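User: I'm curious whether this sequence folds into something compact or stays loose and floppy. Could you predict its structure so I can see for myself?
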Amino acid sequence: MNLHRLLLQRAADGKPLRVALIGAGKFGSMFLAQVRRTPGIHVVAVADLDPQRARAGLARVGWPEEQHQAKSPAEAAKTGRTAVADDALAVIGNDAVEIVIDATGDPAAGIRHALACCEHGKHIVMVNVEADALAGPLLARRATQAGVAYSLAYGDQPALICEMADWARAAGFEVVAAGKGTQYLPSYHESTPETVWDYYGFTPETVAKGDFNAQMFNSFLDGTKSAIEMAAVANATGLTPAPEGLSFPPCGVDDLPRMLRPRSEGGLLHHRGQVEVISSLGRDGSPVARDLRWGVYITFAADSDYVRRCFLEYGLVTDESGNYAAMYKPHHLIGLELGISVASVGLRGEPTGAPTGFRGDVVSVAKRDLKPGESLDGEGGYTVRGKLMPARDSLACGGLPIGLAHGVELTRAVRKGATVTWRDITAPDSEAAHLRLRMEEEFAAVWGIRRLPSATVK
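Assistant: Here's the prediction. I'll summarize afterward.
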């Protein structure tokens, strides 16, 4: 509340929040479409590996060409215009920048940019949930040590779920389950970029006319993106995955209180305080009534006779016991809502969700039998998919995080459906890999887990 009032005051004082956007893809473009209509925020720079793509994106969302002709963030801050650049690290280091949005979608890039923000004292809004799932707990700790905010991105589903969980807890309710909706069938786990369009119902002509990335679309379909997003939710809220990971039960919004309660009380949950994704399709492929494909939800408990009566009196849909109710939001508008995070970190120093621990992890699982010498192709590809696991279980088995499963070579065979481990690969010699291993070592020591030896770094 009151963010708009505070932004208006910033605008009136001539001291707008100075923001740099890294990555001018779909999420970034949607943010750019709204930010020109938002008082008190000034995008001083847009950084993209392809500056022409960034300029084309700005034009597509209605920015006049003269608006993005500044030569540097410093010049932009003085003139009210925007600079377009290809060097993200130089932009982060510029004194004119206060807040950095990473919308690259590349986990290694996200980690690099977050560490640079800590070094230069810049708040970071991490749209890049892939980076957050890979090393968010350690990045958030580094940000706190540096005195800056590390925030999940409002508009994306994890931050919206964090907001709902915070509402429930601040009102004194226990959050029983939290998650999102998606379209899911078990066969989707085997989907590849070659098969993905059939599942979406896109014809070759449709694909040829659009700007479609088959691997990206496939990461949503094969369950990887759901796993990544629920890992972010678990790490930010304290909720935890079931031991078996996500089960994607078919469920409509009216059935949330009945189904998203513990098994011991007739529901589907392994435990209270669980993350779960629900499907808009029945297992036979039929549509679920009043599905939540585009939205998010929480279920919460009354846990007293008086509150159960209040639920009844005020018309809440509950399970048959009257103890469990749900709240849901039917949509998420990704970049169109991102200004909420920018305002929150810039005006209050408060994230719209951030990791507070390491509770969920996303490991790589073989989509088919894999042979020594094969190269993994990462999220949404032909070789592996991401599976959500409790973080302790992931460290105990040495699971290879999906965020590092791109361009690495197998040294051992891995059977279809098996978890790929660090011991099965030649580990990459990269900043992201080293940071991730450091995080694993720190948490394993705290938990008393004796980790098996990892593969040797190149």
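Summary: The chain has three domains: 3-155+336-348, 158-184+223-331, 360-447. The longest helix spans residues 129-146.
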